[in-house]
Amino acid sequence: MVDAPEPIISVEDLNFYYGESQALTNINLKVVRSQVTALIGPSGCGKSTFLRLLNRMNDLIAGTRVEGKVIFEGVNLYGPEVDPVHVRRRIGMVFQKPNPFPKSIYNNVAYGPRLHGLRDRAKLDELVERSLKAAAIWDEVKDILHQSALGLSGGQQQRLCIARAVAMEPEVLLMDEPTSALDPIATARIEELVKELKRNYTVIIVTHNMQQAARVSDETAFFYMGRLVEMGPTEEIFTRPRKEQTEHYITGRFG
Amino acid sequence: MSTINQVQSVAAQPLSTPAAGAAKGMATTSPPARKPIRARSRDRETWIRIVFTAAGLFSVVVMALIIMFLFREGAYLFKTVSLSDFILGTAWYPTYDPPDFGIGPLILGSMSVTLVSSLIAVPLGVGAALYLAEVANPRVREWVKPGVELLASLPSVVLGFVGMVVIAPLMQELWDIPTGLNILNASLMLALMAIPTITSISEDALYAVPRDLMEASLALGATRWETLTRVLLPGALSGVGTAVILGMSRAMGETMVVLMVAGGAAQIPTSIFDSVRPMPATIAAEMGETPFGSEHYYALFAIGIVLFLLTLGFNLVAAWISSRFQQKGAATL
Q: Min CA distance, A246 vs chain B (Å)?
């Protein structure tokens, strides 16, 4: 038995409420550094809510309440002294629908670093190029960097959004069903990219698509009705799940 | 009604004849002959079309007639006064002998109140829109938005009255100036009139910026303020720009307020405490005392032309801004 690798995020006894109704109950899990963790489960099971808790995006919704701890590199993100803005700079997010700013491709990627105070043109150029390369879109856009990002196709826009998140040099990338609005070819490219990204980043991806979870992830967590039913190495979850509910879900008997 | 019925029965004849013949052989099982409704509905549609076309054309025709009238009457002035003397002249003494018809001071009067009022109204109006769209919680918004819009329903004569009896004495006392009826006072009142326009249109534009763009910005570690200034405002730029121009155009064309509180002195202003005589106030004040067909009468129409062209310009710029910077929707898939 090998020692368990050190987790980058560990969630302890997490409960989450939208007003009166409880959306997440007693979640405990650990996310391993430099791996891809997939969150799966039927609609409304709380997986997206959980993802948004990891970079405090749910703070923006009025009337929500969090109990428990999310420990990221030794710090409880829900501790009183933590500024959510700093959390979001280190834990990036890619959304379900591609949402580039109505700015040029270059300015989309440079947006985050500029907020950081990076003004040096040469350094910005270099960072933009590196981020676009990391998101596997550089070859397609290198000649049109100063055109509007809205002229790109949906798949290109989503890779641009990944580049935009990568430009912040975060430690963790959260992806909320990043391919649900894309066609199969664009989806395949994003999946390839996710596998590439784990070399430098820890990726947590919510997906509705079980094959996608099986293809891209190292660990899989199955959520159902606001609870974490089971979590383990992807291969095990998909070949010999321990819980009956997991088996039913992955074999398509519900969900 | 009876004519319609006649039309029906006439139109029904050729259609129903073969059907009736067939029905004789089939006895009771055949369906009853249907009433042809084509003739009637075509008739009605023609009428509806005529009525709506007339309604649509009416305002266009009236508009065209007014503009023709305005230009025709105004043009007579230029038989005796040159265009450059009229526009660039610095003396407006229409009743002297010989009279002076230089509207330079009037144009500057209009410009100065428009400029100063937008300096007041734009930050307040756009600020109020940002507050309503982003800061206010929904319950406050429900009360404040109609409140701001209600400001637009204040009759301008009421605002003028307030400026005259409340603001003017206050200013005189506060700054020890000869008169409280001046550019600043008029601009304040005009700003109050422009703010609802600016706020209402800006707020709609801010509200139309997709929420997921703001989420994207916040997820990159932007603060709320950074998101506001770098994503929200640029995204709503066309709407806010349109709002500002329309607000200014409203201030430019407004008559009653400037007639009551701008002071009415046809001089070139040198400070915001000077009295001025903006163009609309000039027309309103002098038209009643002018002999029909006199030079002075034509001069007032010529001022109307200038005013019309200026507000038309503002509206064209507003239309151009809103088409030029229109955001082409969120992400296209």
A: 31
| Counted domains in chain B | 1
A168 neighbourhood in chain B, CB within 8 Å:
220-221
| Partners of residue A173 on adjacent β-strands | A92, A203
Written as tens digits, the pLDDT of chain B (333 aa) is: 444 444 444 444 444 444 444 444 445 566 667 766 565 667 888 899 999 999 999 999 999 999 999 999 888 888 888 888 888 888 888 888 888 888 888 888 888 999 999 999 999 999 999 888 888 888 888 888 888 888 888 888 998 899 889 988 888 888 888 887 888 888 999 999 899 989 998 988 888 888 889 999 999 988 888 898 888 888 888 888 888 888 888 888 888 888 888 887 888 888 888 888 888 988 988 888 888 888 888 989 999 999 999 989 988 988 888 776 654 444 333
The boundaries of the domain holding residue A144 are 7-188+198-206+214-250
In a domain, B117, yes or no: yes
Tell me if B18 sits within 8 A of B34, measured CB to CB: no
Label residue A80 exposed, middle or buried (CB < 10 Å: 0-12, 13-18, 19+). exposed
**Strand runs (DSSP E) across chain A, as ranges?**
7-18, 21-32, 36-40, 64-72, 75-76, 91-94, 172-176, 202-206, 219-224, 227-233
In chain B, positions 76-115, which contact chain A (CB-CB < 8 Å)?
A: none
What is the spatial distance between Cα B278 and Cα B258, in angstroms, rounded to a whole number? 7
Chain B residues in contact with A98 by the CB 8 A cut-off are 331, 333
Is residue A222 situated within a structural domain? yes
CB atoms within 10 A of CB A214: 18
What residues make up the domain containing B308?
A: 103-324
Q: Which ipTM did the prediction report? A: 0.87
Q: Are B132 and B141 within 8 A, CB to CB?
A: yes
CB A106 within 8 A of CB A145: yes
Alpha-carbon gap: B331 to the closest alpha carbon of chain A (Å)? 6
